[in-house]
Amino acid sequence: MSFGNSRFEIHGAQKIAAALLLAFLLQALWLLAHLPLDLAETRSALAGQALWSTRETLEARSPLIPGDSILAIRLSGALPALAGALGSNGYEFSIYAAPNRWLVRLPFVAFGLWLGGALWWVARRIFGDEGGYVALGLYCFSPPLLLTASTVDSGILSAWGLFGFVYTAIGVAHTLYASPRKWRPRIGLLGVAIGLTAAANLAAAIAGLVIAVAFMLYLAPGRRVAAMIVLAISSGIGTLVFLGCYGFQFADIHASLVVPNVEYLRLTAHHMAMFLILPGGLLETAALLSALVVFAVWRRTRYFGNWSPLLLAVSLPWWPGQFVSGASTMWALHFALTLIGGIFADLLEPTFFRGRFRTQVVIAAFVLVGASVALSLIVVTGA
Fold first, then answer.
1. Higher pLDDT pick, 45 / 322
2. pLDDT range class, residue 93, cuts 50, 70, 90
3. Residue 155's CB: how many other CB atoms inside 10 A?
4. Which of 86, 332, 345, 348 could be a cystine partner for 316, CB 3.0 to 4.6 Å?
């Protein structure tokens, strides 16, 4: 999108991205409509309605249980609670009514669409149109992502939060040499990213903080004290956002057991094993391994735009954390797609054997995305 001479313009790249995101939306909506709500989704929706209600019938007892993501619970209950309030004509509605799967799942589809747009924006900004197309094409036809975005799952929310957290921190680091007046909006944005990531999954927020500290110190060697001050202020804002998602109800915080414990010190490899058995998981892992081979053998690809998502793609699946389950592979997947897009963009540059293999690289990209399309259609039509 271009903002020049007060005109709003949409060019070919935006149209292609919009078409891919529309394909993602249609697939997610189909899955949303055809996959029945399971017991966990139903309970999340009812707990969410309780949080949005006056909770008079609950006698101040928290509807949350250990492992609940407050952001997922809030979102799953928001539209059912609103629909019940609007349809009650002033009378209190029953929070125990069977939830509507459209109302329960639509917010998660919206966040999946939002994350796809963010992925395309980042990949295109760093790697150009080719990198953005490959990354977004793989995203929009990724069976694991489609399944996660079309059901009540904190994985898509924490992935959205962590992706925004990391790249917002990188953006803030790049502005630390500018006037402090330019820091203020980004400090606030970073604080919101921290808070919402923590509300989705506290382990993801802890991972984001570790990554943000490392990247900000690396990118602003002459302003490291300022970087830590900015991150401290943003963390304070994030804490308020996090508590606000709980309505500052400390009984709910205690009930959901969000406080880190010894499990945060234990690395695990079973998350990746769980991901590999998902439809499309093996294909996306093979694409990542191929990108790693190119990164290892071709020095031209070893720059910050590539190695920063590489570090996250290979480390996050083993990230420890209470109640993380397989969500950490979803966190890593978006960074892996960013890296794959970057590697393809590098291979398509004229400097790669003077463009002699450009046709073969283009064919490889189409085959990779095409295989992902075929797998996603199998998943969608089988729902």
1. 45
2. very low
3. 28
4. 332
